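Fig. S4 source data, part A: sequence.
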Amino acid sequence: MKGTHHGRGIMTAALKTLVDEWMIVRMGAKQLRVEAFIGNIGSVRVFEKNGFVWEKQSEHDILTNCGERYTGFNVLWWRKGET
């Protein structure tokens, strides 16, 4: 079941603010690497909308601290000046 705020661009805007107003300005970030579990298309799309570029999938079993099992993750990169 999707929440009332699903699909409204809130996470895209929040990530843009975090990168533009904190990571670049306050931390001097020049590149960022993020990961999203395979199958989490929404998170990958949020990263892509913010200039991250998909690099690869790492396929191996992951067991989270909550006991959930995933088959791997997508790796995306953002590099300053490439967006």
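Fig. S4 source data, part B ends here. The chain has two helices and five strands.
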